[in-house]
Amino acid sequence: MTHTPADDPDWLQNLAKTMNQGSPQAVALGMRTLEIGGGRVIMTVPYREDLVGDTVTGVIAGGVVTTLLDHSCGQSVYAALPHPTTIATLDLRIDYMRRSQPGRDIFVAAHCYRLTQSIAFVRAVAYDVSADDPVATAQAAFMLNASAGRPPGANLKPPASQSQKAGL
Amino acid sequence: MSEDQRSVTETVAAAVRAVPYAAFLGVEVAFNGDEMTAILPYAPHLIGNPLLPAIHGGVLGAFMELTAIAQLSVLHPHSRQPRSIDVSVEYLRTGRPVTTYARATVKKIGRRVANVHVEAWQDQRDAPIAFLRAHFLLGAVAAQT
Lengths: 168, 145
Fold this sequence. Notes:
- The structure holds 2 protein chains of 2 kinds.
- Chain A is 24% helix and 33% strand.
- Chain A is of the alpha+beta class.
- Chain A has one domain (5-147): Hotdog Thioesterase (Thiol Ester Dehydrase, Chain A).
- Chain A has a 6-stranded antiparallel sheet. In chain A, strands 3-4 form a two-stranded antiparallel sheet.
- In chain A, a hairpin with a 4-residue loop joins strand 3 and strand 4.
- Chain A is globular and about 45 Å long.
- Chain B is α+β, with helices and mostly antiparallel strands.
- Chains A and B meet through helix 2, strand 3, helix 3 and strand 5 of A and helix 2, strand 3, strand 4, helix 3 and strand 5 of B.
- Strand 5 of chain A pairs antiparallel with strand 5 (83-91) of chain B.
């Protein structure tokens, strides 16, 4: 079996740290990785009152679950890739089974179950107590080598306008 | 704009401001008549990938979900907040570190379920960065649970 970065526990721990502490939104939500390896991650966001989506119920906003799902799914892709590359979410579909309980932290278990040359496929479950009683399930697809040679800082420049691209 | 419409848009704007998570993201709403545009001004904590830099994909999904919920409350201003049944987000372009806008279209509103599509864009209206399609369970039924 070929040794790849995704087989190395230290590399994986470091990856999780970089992806969580290096991402301002992950820091803002207080995301942590509890387990990582073999194309799987378990991540959490602690309950906070400023993340509530409905003050009547006190339930954490669906958007927090969305962001944790996106982040965990992406991290599971890195935990599966034989050679790290840039990735970008193509689509993310979420089914909400039930409300999470007010005051409960949110957890996501994500599994990158298939890699092709250019796409990674991921399934994930969001829960507050047990993964057997999900708050939401999700399915995501990611582009691999998403930046395709674009350098860091590429997004600071305005994009070419559509009319320019069309040659108008 | 009629007095009724004005009170609806004020109710919705106030309701959005009252959602703690909408304040966490910094979401605002603006109305032209009954057409609502949700606005997500750029803020450093929205960034997911600091290298490009790009707004977190989850934030874009969350922003569009809030837009859909706010648009539904324009139609049903005094009912309870609709609950998401399923949400599908499609990403077309990375979110650059600038203001993002979104508009929602309610494609079907039934007795219990609504189907809503949302489009998000930045500098150029004709170059959307993401779409969201979602079903919501409406307030009347949510009140029984």
